[in-house]
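Thread amino acids onto this structure.
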C-alpha cells in the first residue's frame, strides 16, 4: 500500500482529506519515500484548507457580524424598507390633516382679532367710502378714522363685521395651511426638490384652494365692514339676503339705445326697437340674482391670491431657513426642540422673535406684491352698493380707479395695509408653528 501511495501523490492527498488509510504507526514511523518537498507540503496544506465546505467558511466569516449587541439600541435596529418616506406618509394621514387644519384655523383667528380695527379702516379706505375719503393719504388719517368710528359706535364699531371675519377666517386659514402641507408633500418629496419655484407653487395652490371655499364669507364680511350708518344697521342675515337678491342694473349702452329709439321715429326705428327687445330679452335670460352674487370680484381675488400666498409661504420658509443657519442657530433656535429619533428631519423650533420676524417679512413682501389687485377686488365686492350696480370686470374696475385717482389709487391704504398685514402674518405663522409643536405634528 505504501508503494502505491508513493507512486500516486494524489492518492496521498485524498487519504489526508478523507482521514482513511492512515494509522498511528504510519504517522509515527513515516516512510522515507513519503517525504515531500516543502513546496509540496504547502500545497497539500492549502488543498486541505480549501477542501473545507464553502458553506462552513462563509458561516465562520458571518458569525461575528450576526452576533447581537450586548445592549442593543435603536441604532442597532434594522431600518425597514421605505422608512425614508415615512414622514411624507404621515403628513397624508387623517390625524395630521385634522391637526394641521385646527392649528391653521386658530392661528388665523388670533391674527385677525389682533388687527380687527385696522382691517375695518382699511376696507373703508379701499372701497372709497364717501364718509372716509377725507382721511386717506396719511398715517394721521388712519388714527382720525379710528377715533371717528370709536366716537360714533364705540369699540363695537371698530370690530364691525368681525363675527363674519372669524366665521370665514377659521376655515380659510385652516384650509390654507393644511393644503400647503399636503401640496408641499407631493410637490417637494426630498431635499433636492426644495426649490423656490416649488415652494411658490405650493403656496399659490394652497391659497387658491382656501379662497375658493370661503370667498362668499369674505364678500359678506366686506359688506358688513363697508356699512357706516349708525341706525338701522344690517344684520348678518339681512346682508346675506341683500346680496342674494341684488339685480344688476342695465348697462349704460342699452339705456342710450332705448332713448334713441323713442326720440327718432324714422324708418330705422323698427331696427332700433328690435335691438331694444333683444337687449331686454338678453337681460332677462342673464342671471339677475342668486349665489353668483357671492362671488363678486372672485377673478381679481384669485389673480391676487396667486402672488400673495405664493410669496408669503416662499418668503417665510426662506427666512426660516436663514434663521436656522448653523452659524446663528444657537441664537435663533430652541436647542431642546431639535429633531428626535422619531422624526430626525424635523427642523428645530425658532425662538419667538425669530419666528415673528420670519412671518413679518413674509407679510411685507406678499402685501407689496399683491396690493393693487386687492384694491380692485375690494371695489368689485362692493359693486352692488356703489356706482351703477353692474358687475364690472377686472379691466373695467382698474380703469375706473385710474380715472378717479390715477396710479396712486391702486395703493390707497397701503400704509395701513403694512401696519395690518405685517403683525397679522407674524402672529399667524407664530401661532401655527407653536400649535403644530404642541399637537405633535
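Threaded sequence (441 positions):
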Amino acid at each position: 500500500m505504501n508503494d502505491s501511495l508513493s507512486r500516486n501523490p494524489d492518492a496521498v492527498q485524498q487519504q489526508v482529506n478523507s482521514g482513511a488509510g492512515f494509522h498511528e504507526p504510519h504517522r509515527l514511523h513515516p516512510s522515507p519515500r513519503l517525504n515531500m518537498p516543502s513546496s509540496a507540503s504547502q500545497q497539500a496544506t492549502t488543498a486541505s484548507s480549501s477542501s473545507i465546505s464553502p458553506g462552513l467558511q462563509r458561516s465562520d466569516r458571518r458569525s461575528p457580524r450576526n452576533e447581537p449587541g450586548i445592549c442593543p439600541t435603536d441604532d442597532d435596529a434594522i431600518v425597514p424598507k421605505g422608512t425614508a418616506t415615512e414622514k411624507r406618509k404621515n403628513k397624508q394621514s387623517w390625524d395630521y390633516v385634522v391637526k394641521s387644519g385646527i392649528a391653521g384655523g386658530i392661528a388665523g383667528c388670533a391674527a385677525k382679532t389682533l388687527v380687527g380695527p385696522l382691517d375695518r379702516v382699511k376696507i373703508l379706505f379701499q372701497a372709497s367710502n364717501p364718509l372716509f375719503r377725507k382721511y386717506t393719504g396719511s398715517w394721521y388719517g388712519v388714527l382720525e378714522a379710528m377715533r371717528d368710528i370709536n366716537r360714533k359706535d364705540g369699540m363695537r364699531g371698530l370690530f364691525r363685521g368681525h363675527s363674519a371675519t372669524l366665521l370665514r377666517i377659521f376655515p380659510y386659514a385652516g384650509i390654507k395651511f393644511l393644503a400647503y402641507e399636503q401640496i408641499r408633500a407631493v410637490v417637494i418629496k426630498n431635499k433636492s426638490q426644495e426649490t423656490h419655484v416649488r415652494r411658490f407653487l405650493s403656496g399659490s395652490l394652497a391659497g387658491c384652494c382656501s379662497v375658493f371655499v370661503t370667498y362668499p364669507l369674505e364678500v359678506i364680511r366686506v359688506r358688513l365692514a363697508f356699512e357706516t350708518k349708525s341706525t338701522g344697521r344690517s344684520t348678518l342675515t339681512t346682508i346675506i339676503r341683500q346680496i342674494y337678491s341684488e339685480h344688476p342694473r342695465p348697462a349704460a349702452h342699452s339705456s342710450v339705445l332705448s332713448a334713441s329709439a323713442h326720440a327718432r321715429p324714422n324708418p330705422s326705428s323698427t331696427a332700433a326697437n328690435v335691438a331694444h327687445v333683444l337687449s331686454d330679452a338678453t337681460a332677462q335670460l342673464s342671471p339677475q340674482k342668486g349665489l353668483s352674487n357671492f362671488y363678486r370680484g372672485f377673478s381679481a381675488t384669485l389673480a391676487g391670491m396667486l402672488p400673495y400666498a405664493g410669496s408669503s409661504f416662499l418668503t417665510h420658509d426662506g427666512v426660516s431657513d436663514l434663521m436656522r443657519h448653523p452659524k446663528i442657530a444657537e441664537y435663533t433656535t430652541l436647542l431642546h426642540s431639535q429633531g428626535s429619533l422619531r422624526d430626525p428631519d424635523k427642523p428645530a423650533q425658532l425662538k419667538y422673535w425669530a419666528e415673528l420676524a420670519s412671518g413679518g417679512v413674509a407679510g411685507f413682501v406678499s402685501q407689496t406684491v399683491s396690493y393693487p389687485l386687492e384694491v380692485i377686488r375690494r371695489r368689485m365686492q362692493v359693486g352692488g352698493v356703489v356706482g351703477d350696480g353692474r358687475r364690472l370686470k377686472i379691466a373695467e374696475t382698474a380703469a375706473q380707479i385710474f380715472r378717479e385717482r390715477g396710479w396712486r389709487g391702486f395703493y390707497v391704504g397701503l400704509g395701513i395695509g403694512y401696519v395690518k398685514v405685517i403683525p397679522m402674518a407674524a402672529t399667524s405663522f407664530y401661532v401655527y408653528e407653536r400649535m403644530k409643536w404642541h399637537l405633535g405634528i
